[in-house]
Design brief:
Radius of gyration: 23 Å
Number of helices: 16
CATH superfamily of the largest domain: Mur-like, catalytic domain
Shape: globular
Strand content: 15-25%
Strand order of the largest sheet: 9-10-8-11-12-13-14-15-16
CATH architecture of the largest domain: 3-Layer(aba) Sandwich
Distance between the termini: 34 Å
Helix content: 25-40%
Amino acid sequence: MSHLWTSQTMTTAMGGRPVGRLPEGVSGISIDSRSLQPGDAFFAIKGDRFDGHDFATAASAAGASLLVIAEGMLPALGRLATPMIVVEDVLKAMEKLAAAARARSAAKVIAVTGSAGKTTTKEVLRLVLSGSGRVHAADRSFNNHWGVPLTLARMPADCDFAVIEIGMNHAGEIRPLTRLARPHLAIVTLIAPAHLGHFQSLDEIARAKAEIFEGVVEDGFALINRDDQRWRVLDKQAKEAGIKQIVGFGEHSRAQIKLVKCTLAEDHSEIAVRIAGQEIRARVGAPGRHMVQNVLAALGAVHLVGADMDAATQALAGLRAVRGRGARHVLSHPEGAFTLIDESYNANPASVKVALDLLAQTPVEGDGRRIAVLGDMRELGPHSAKLHAALAKAIDAAGIDKVFLAGEEIKVLTGELPESLPVEYRPTTDELGPLVVNDVRPGDALMVKASLTLGFSRIVDALLNRFPAAAAQAGTQ
């Protein structure tokens, strides 16, 4: 059996102290006893809501091969039979292991940030690089102060590419994470008013995102959205970080990764992209103009890290949107079928507009309607009322036929929408959900989107539980 880490290497890297007879090595790293696999090392991280030490017994019962615990917790846990590595601080120990993982790796490391599209771009990169070698990327959106170290600590020594997603809510949060990841290439997907409640302006958000450039290795690359209004801010920050190779992607005349043709269809797109003097044509299996932008970034990365472009373009046909980020379901109603677009993972003004555009492009059948199910966009601070009210224009432009709303902050939108547009508002998700489920009818296309904390995934689940997948869509995206 091959090990992700030997116990000796782990102990040395973390500056830990072994307690009990350690196994030869571990097969994985876990911070959640519920998903832990036998043979994993369990790191008892203390978070904002939970302390991993409270779940050490459960991790031991689930088959953890060793536990990484804080020195101060040893008296309470010392009787467990599972061997341990004792450290001063468990999160700092994982950061040290992450640094060791990066130091031993010969992989090309790509870091991704942005106000929208981070996780989707990460998944596109996973797909398009897979034809060129072994790719390591987190299965979920692990992009914060513990998610990035965890992703790095899980990186196999023999992978060829690593894709690290890095997010932030405040200035200064990306800096230590990118310095830990030391990417060969840093991508900024888009600057938009996400987390605007913590910033004075979009320029401030851009500068916070641009911290990702500070970790780029010597002779590395910055890959920036050339169509973004904050291009100049990002370009300046990249130069100040010492990056000499700054590349733009988009439709802009000066973009080096240039979109020259784009045909949007209901369930895919056809694109032509000019890279290094060559025109590359590809079919993108997931729909939407925003998806094309993420694909441009991914193709730019393939080119810059020297991966196989032919394999990448062929793989794009198999691209599918993921749960909470545009996944489509064609569901059976007793009298016909309807389309559900699951955008429930998160929301900010830019991503809601994109989702509404996607709904506008989705055909309806017969008397079907385009229905937007929207909830609060959180962390907009004093700008919240204005930005929620501004959604009225995007709703009108998308030709939406009915709107369902939930949340305290989005209530202001009810006063901005025309009286001719049917609107149902409820304060909470659980009050709104049954209305949506009972209202849907054959031929409809409905899109569900809100900030994660509103739990709009429950509305999606209710629809999926009530209505089975249509026969033609047995393998839903």
